[in-house]
Structures are given as C-alpha cells and as structure tokens.
Amino acid sequence: MTYDLLFTGGEVPGTGPADVAVRDGLIAAVGAGVSEDARTVVDVAGLLVTPGLVDLHAHVGPGYWGIEPDPIAWRTGVTTWVDAGSAGAYTLAGLRRVVAGTDVRVPALLNISAVGLAGRTGESRDLDNCDTALAIDTVQAHRDLIRGIKVRIDRETVGDNGVEPLRRGLAAAQACGIPVMVHIGTAPPALDEVLDLLRPGDIVTHCASGIAAPLGPAVRAARERGVLLDIGHGSGGFAFDVLERQLAEGLAPDTVSTDLHARSVHGPVFDLPTTMAKLLAAGLPLTEVLAAATVRPARALGLPGGTLTVGAPADLAVFRVEEGAFEVVDAHRQVRHAPLRLVNEATYVAGRRMIPRLGPPTPPWIPLTDAQRAALARRERDLRALLTAPLVGADGLAEQFPRPTPRSQ
Ligand SMILES: [Zn+2]
Fold first, then answer.
1. Kind plus residue range of the DSSP H or E element containing 56
2. CA–CA distance, 83 with 146 (Å, rounded to integer)
3. Exposure check for the chain: N or C terminus, fewer CB within 10 A?
4. What is the Å distance from ligand 1's center to 234 Cα?
5. Which residues contact 202 (CB under 8 A, 6 or more apart)?
6. Three-class secondary structure of residue 230 per DSSP
7. Cα of 14 to ligand 1 centre, how many Å?
8. 72-128 per-position pLDDT tens digit
9. ∠ CA 386-392-394 to the nearest 5 degrees?
10. Strands 48-51 and 38-43
C-alpha cells in the first residue's frame, strides 16, 4: 500500500479541490488525482479538509481553570491546544502528567509566576513567585514542552507590582529565545506601558478585549514592530465593538484563540469553531479566519502543525460548511450573525481519528446556570446514544459517525 489513509474529493483551503494522503502519521501527498492505493479511503466530497486547528490560548490544567481537551477536540477539529500559563515552575510536573494522557498535542507557555494558575488569579502579587532564574532553568529543562512564557498583567493578578512581572517574563524569554504571551485586562498597569515593552514575535492575548480595548498609537506601534495580536476570547476577553473598531483601523487579529477554560467552556466561548464564527460575523473572510487558527498560531510558537504541506504531521480536520445567519454572542452579550459556520465531521491527530468521548464532570467550584446544566445533560445523553450506536460502513463520514450534537449557542 502506498498510503495509510486517503481523503478524496474534498476542498483544501488555499489549494482548491484536492486529495490528501497520509503515511506514517505524516502528510504524504496533496493534490488532484493522488493514487487511490491506500489502506483506508475516505470520501469527503462536499467537505472542507483543513489542517488540525491550533488553539494558541487554552487551559488544560492543572488547577482552577483547566479542562480536558480530548472530549472537546474530537468534535471541533482542534488538534493542538496551547496551554497558556496554567502551570508555572512549581506546577509544571502536573501539566506534564496531563499532557501524557491526551491524544491532542499540548505545547505550553510557562507562567512567569511559579505557582501558575493553581488558584483563581493573583499569581503575580508576590514577586518572590516571579523568579526569572527559576523560569529560565525550567524552560531549559523542558524544551520539548515549553514554547514561550505567559505573563498575566491586570490589577487583580499583579496587585501593586505594576509591569515588573512582565519585565521578568521578558528577561526569561529573552534568555531562552522564546516569545512572551501577555494577557491584558483591567488597569493598572496602563495598557500602553505593557504594549511598549513587547518585542517582535511577542503576543498580546485578549487583543479585542472590552476591558482593556487596545486601540490607538501604542497598539499600532506594537503591531508595526511585529507584536502579534491574539483574540483569547475567554469569559471576559472579547468584545465585538472593539474588534470592529480595530478592523476599521486596520488592526485585524493575527490569531484567533479561545482561552477555553472551566469558566468559559459552557459559554460564552464553547469552542474554537464558534469563536471563528465570531470573526466571520465581524466581516473577516473564511480564508483569513482559517489561517488565524492554523498556520499563524503554529508559526508564532514554531510548532510543527497548522499546515497540510508534505512532511507535516497528519493533523487534519474535516468540516461541513453551513451557510445561514448564525447568532453569535461575545463576552458582553453583544450579538452578531455569522454568515457561515464550520461543523466538524472528523478530527485526526497524526493520521489517527479521534474517537467520541464524554467529558469529566464539572468541578465543584464552577457554578453552572440551569440552562447550562440542561445543555450539558442533553449533550451527554446524545453522546451516550452515539457511543452505543453500531458503526456502519466506511463509505462516508456522516454514516460512520453521525454529526455531533449542535452547540448550545
Ligand atoms: Zn487564559
């Protein structure tokens, strides 16, 4: 057999109609009329075949905010989940254990605070926790896992310490040759003071936040010297009106990420395709939004995925494109309508299909509304039915696995 797996008749964004072949967990060929000599041939006519999505800002644990990625990944196409600062030096071993048990890829950004996000926030109020030398040693010892430094800068997190945690994070990142992702939020410190410190390749997450609202000369100057703007939706980090003003100023985000965590996963975020639909609703074209969720986040951290070029990891997502007027809501209950949405039909990591699975129970410190509880129960019931349904033939993904339950938004 020439190939292990072959997708035929699909549409590859940026390429057009193309077959995609996989061998030994890598992309082996992309183009028209690839040899059908494959162990498994999957007909994806009418569907979109994209690189597995790369979520540049998520929280897979350990601690207050962490969620399990696999039970969401299999139905959303997200094959790389960057853990954005859940772990600091003291808690990295816990993240390692989490990562060892996941099917998806989990690169990490090390929190400059050694305690990471074990608790709710405030991790950089005690500067003794923001130890530059310790962060450098930790990165050096875990190069395979750590791709950058995370610093959260807002009033709650830093207390009276101003931008000092950011200075320390930048020093550690500079010593290790990796970028910093900075979270922005409620001042002080002032947003401009934060932006002015950032280097080319550093990342501002929550870039369209209604709390910090990056607009004007400082953010334009940062963008011009190569600072990247990342959405990082989260429970408070995304506002349609801010994004729309940024788009009018020519400040389109470089990357779209969810900041998916225990308090955003049941709304307003839900998942990455839903977040992507919000950018579509703001007027960005699909090709842009797909690049912002694949090749660009991968490039920002030097990750191997995010592309369907030959030799890349065979991380793939198969999507059905639905057109309509889909209501989407930001973190401040502003409503817009997306002209289309991507519904995931199948997700592959290193050429292996992710199987449907249930998520763990919600942790006791996360309050759910009655509506969220009902939506969760409905999804669990549907998924249990799906998991016990007999699988039929391999001639078509929809027959193999019925479409995932529609999202609750
Ligand atoms: Zn976050």
1. strand 53-58
2. 9
3. N
4. 7
5. 170, 173, 179, 180, 181, 182, 227, 228
6. strand
7. 30
8. 999 999 999 999 999 999 999 999 999 999 999 999 999 999 999 999 999 999 999
9. 115
10. unpaired
